[in-house]
Amino acid sequence: MASVNDPPDLASLNRESLLELTVVGRKTGTPRTVKIWFVATQDKIYISSGRGSNSQWIKNLKQTPTVTCQIGSTRFQGIAVWLEEGQVRNTIFPLFFRKYFLARLFRWIGWYKEAFAFEITPQQAQD
C-alpha cells in the first residue's frame, strides 16, 4: 500500500485528458492555473504547447519551476525542467501525437514548430 508521501503511479493518469497546472506568477508571486494537455510515463509528466514558448505560464514556469499538478483526483507537487529539441521531437512529441488526435492535426497545420517541453518530477502526493 502506498503512503500519502509516495509519488502517484503516473502512467495510469494518461486516461485523463487535461492537467490542471498551477505555477507562480513571475511578477506577482501569486498562483496561476492553466488546463493543458499532458502525457505521463511511469515517473514523469510532460507538458508542452504547440503554439510556442511565448505563453505566460511558460515564462512563469521557467522562472519558478515548482508546480502543483491536478490530474483527475490526483494532486501532487513537482519540479519542472525545461527540455529542447532532439529528445522532445524524437521521444516526447510522439507521445502527445499518440494520445491526442488533435495534436496530430495541429502538427499537420504547422503547430509544434518549436520543439520544447517541461518534464515534471513529482515531489509529494497530496490528498
- Our count of helices gives 3
Mean of residue pLDDT values = 85
Strand content: 35-45%
CATH class: Mainly Beta
**At the fourth CATH level, what is the homologous superfamily?**
Electron Transport, Fmn-binding Protein, Chain A
The CATH architecture classification is Roll
Largest sheet: 7 strands, antiparallel
Number of strands: 7
CATH level-3 fold name: Pnp Oxidase, Chain A
As residue ranges, the low-confidence spans are none
- Terminal residue distance: 15 Å
Order of helices and strands: EEEEHEEHHE
Structure characterization notes:
By secondary structure, this protein is of the alpha+beta class. The chain has one domain (10-126): Pnp Oxidase, Chain A. It contains three helices and seven strands, in the order E-E-E-E-H-E-E-H-H-E. The chain has a seven-stranded antiparallel beta sheet with strand order 2-1-5-6-7-4-3. A hairpin with a 2-residue loop joins strand 5 (66-71) and strand 6. The longest helix has 15 residues, at 85-99. It is globular. The protein starts with 18 loop residues before the first strand and ends with a strand.
